[in-house]
Amino acid sequence: MRKHGQGIAMLDMLIAIGLGLVILLPLARVVRAAVITHFRQEQIFIIEQDAYFLLDHMARAIQQAGHNDPLDLADDSAIALRGLDNAIISGTAEDSSVTTGSGFHGSDVLAIHFSASSLDSKMILHNCAGLAVAPTSLDGIDRGWSIFYLVRGTNGNGDFRCKYRGTDQWDSQSLASGVLTLQFLYGLDTDNDGLPNQFLNAATINQKESATGQSEGSVWRHIVAVHIALVMQASADLVDQSPPDTLDLFGSFYSDAYALTDRGTHFSLSDFPSIQRKRLSRVFDRLVFLRNHALLNQQTGPQQSERNQ
Questions:
Q1: Residue 13, domain extent
Q2: What is this structure's pTM?
């Protein structure tokens, strides 16, 4: 009789366990899905925050291009904005030390020149490192530079850096990591109305100067806008993440026409190492109009308007 009672108790326990599993297994799947969703949203938030910070930072720097100290006439001849395609530069060398054809995933370089005003002490300009820039006329040292570029980071993604002229020498500073590629197109004003008629990469603009025999930088002085595009990638894998087939930084239309000659504007994550294929990747872009457009073009032709973003 006692053994019979123990058998019934064991059967009841097994039934209870089975019913518990029926309830808990779906609940476990719900919890797992919630954890994955939360992690995905966290990764999205991180890369969006970094991307918008970089875009805002570059936009402010671009809008300083060509800002001129009226007491320093030497600045009139400086090329206020210029880019390089698929290139990398030295972060500390006195000269540009450019290496073309070796940009991180075809990343571009953008150099911005400006000068602070010695007439208005409240007009304080900052370089890409956030340091205040003194007027060149005070000590003769031109510190009005902000240069953006990518280098390979320790995690296999790009390290977004800015190069600037410090107190004694050139220096560079890391602003963010997790950038796969950085690309620029430049809005060229061909009819002097202050609006871009076509968007070209840096190589095409330089070819235009060479083909027409114009002086160095003459075409760059007609740039009125910059289209920035970059790809951010999360630092951790997503369990259920599959890579997109392709990434088009300036849209499929541009990629279809120029992907072969403008490296880094179109690529597939399936070409990346397997360790990076399950990481969330997104394209971010922004169009920025130059504020000092009239100043940039004062030596090559009259302008009818000045654009602000």
A1: 2-296
A2: 0.80
